[in-house]
């Protein structure tokens, strides 16, 4: 009996042959080896807690089978397979759903992305094959987590990568962690001068550094507060970070988080939090103008992965 968390069947109705075995490191660079008949263990279980998102990317080469797809296995959380007419389909163990991609008779290679979101009701998979629109399916298997992949049949997979990050570093929104930020975190983590330079830093320290997209302790300093003739207030903020005794600038256009300004007319009033757009032309210093009608007498700026609390 197979009890694997996720299955990618490259060709249906083909009996299992001698299986390659491999381990896929999380947040590592894409693999270069071409896998055919293979069982791949994920180095650590991903999407195992509510709110977590994992993103799997791969280049998959498919062949057309000669037989029509049989009923999917209810033991597998997700199956990706090709039908006899070349239609690439996905299943959560009950029905087959077309992805919108079709394999020609000569076979074809597609970029495949599977975004796995762990929610209150289990795992939801968003599957995108090639240029087709993503297809969403929810697993019928109750438990969360993805820890193993099976590639079975006449086909191959390369450029395989898995991105994931804990919720203590990247807090989830209502629909789970942002897949885009999860992938950015994986890239940041494996960059030597960024995440690779954080060593034994705490999750809070990693979250702050990732938000600023740097490899040390970040700072955002208000360098000037200038009341304008029209009653507005112009503030200048500068991004930087320190690594040991060295301080370097942090370009605010490259941040992974968002730049926010929090302001209030009085210290005892209820502050307002607003996101500030940062253009690609901005460097480590950004000027922010708060209009007069907002009466921003007390204010601060911050870079964060989530909207900060409305406090001064």
Q: Helicity range of the residues? A: under 10%
Helix/strand/pairing class, anyone? mainly beta
Strand order of the largest sheet: 2-3-11-1-5-6-7
Integer-rounded radius of gyration? 24 Å
Beta-strand residue percentage: 35-45%
SS element count, helices: 2
Give a quick account of the main beta sheet: strands, pairing sense, barrel closure. Answer: 7 strands, mixed
Question: Any descriptors?
Answer:
19 strands; 5-stranded antiparallel beta sheet; 2 helices; 312 residues; 7% helix; 7-stranded mixed beta sheet; mainly beta
Description of the molecule:
The chain starts with 5 loop residues before the first strand and ends in an 8-residue tail after the last strand. The chain has helices spanning 179-189, 203-212, and strands at residues 6-9, 20-24, 38-46, 53-62, 79-82, 87-91, 96-102, 108-119, 122-129, 135-138, 146-152, 155-164, 217-227, 233-243, 246-249, 258-264, 272-276, 285-290, 298-304. 7% of the residues lie in helices and 44% in strands. The model is unreliable at 1-18 (pLDDT under 50). A hairpin with a 5-residue loop joins strand 9 (122-129) and strand 10. It is elongated and about 75 Å long. The chain has 312 residues and is mostly beta strands.
Give the SSE layout:
Blueprint: E1 6-9, E2 20-24, E3 38-46, E4 53-62, E5 79-82, E6 87-91, E7 96-102, E8 108-119, E9 122-129, E10 135-138, E11 146-152, E12 155-164, H1 179-189, H2 203-212, E13 217-227, E14 233-243, E15 246-249, E16 258-264, E17 272-276, E18 285-290, E19 298-304
Parallel strand pairs: 1-5, 1-11, 2-3
Antiparallel strand pairs: 3-11, 4-8, 4-12, 5-6, 6-7, 8-9, 9-10, 13-14, 14-15, 14-18, 16-17, 16-19
């Amino acid at each position: 009996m197979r009890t694997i968390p996720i299955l990618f069947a490259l060709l249906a109705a083909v009996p299992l042959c001698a299986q390659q075995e491999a381990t896929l490191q999380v947040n590592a660079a894409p693999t270069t080896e071409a896998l055919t008949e293979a069982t791949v263990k994920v180095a650590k279980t991903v999407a195992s807690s509510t709110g977590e998102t994992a993103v799997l990317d791969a280049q998959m080469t498919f062949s057309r089978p000669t037989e029509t797809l049989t009923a999917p296995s209810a033991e597998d959380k997700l199956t990706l397979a090709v039908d006899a007419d070349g239609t690439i389909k996905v299943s959560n163990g009950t029905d087959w759903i077309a992805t919108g991609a079709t394999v020609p008779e000569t076979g074809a290679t597609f970029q495949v992305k599977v975004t796995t979101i762990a929610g209150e009701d289990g795992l939801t998979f968003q599957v995108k094959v090639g240029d087709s629109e993503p297809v969403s399916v929810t697993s019928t298997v109750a438990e969360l987590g993805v820890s193993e992949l099976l590639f079975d049949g006449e086909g191959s997979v390369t450029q395989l990568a898995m991105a994931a990050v804990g919720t203590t570093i990247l807090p989830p929104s209502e629909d789970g962690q942002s897949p885009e930020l999860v992938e950015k975190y994986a890239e940041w983590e494996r960059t030597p001068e960024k995440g690779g330079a954080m060593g034994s830093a705490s999750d809070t320290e990693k979250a702050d550094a990732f938000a600023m997209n740097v490899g040390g302790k970040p700072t955002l300093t208000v360098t000037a507060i200038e009341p304008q003739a029209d009653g507005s207030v112009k503030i200048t903020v500068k991004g930087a970070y320190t690594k040991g005794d060295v301080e370097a600038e942090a370009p605010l256009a490259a941040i992974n988080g968002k730049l926010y300004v929090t302001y209030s007319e009085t210290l005892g009033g209820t502050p307002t939090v607003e996101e500030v757009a940062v253009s690609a032309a901005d460097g480590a210093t950004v000027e922010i103008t708060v209009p007069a009608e907002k009466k921003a007498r007390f204010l601060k700026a911050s870079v964060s992965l989530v909207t900060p609390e409305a406090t001064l």
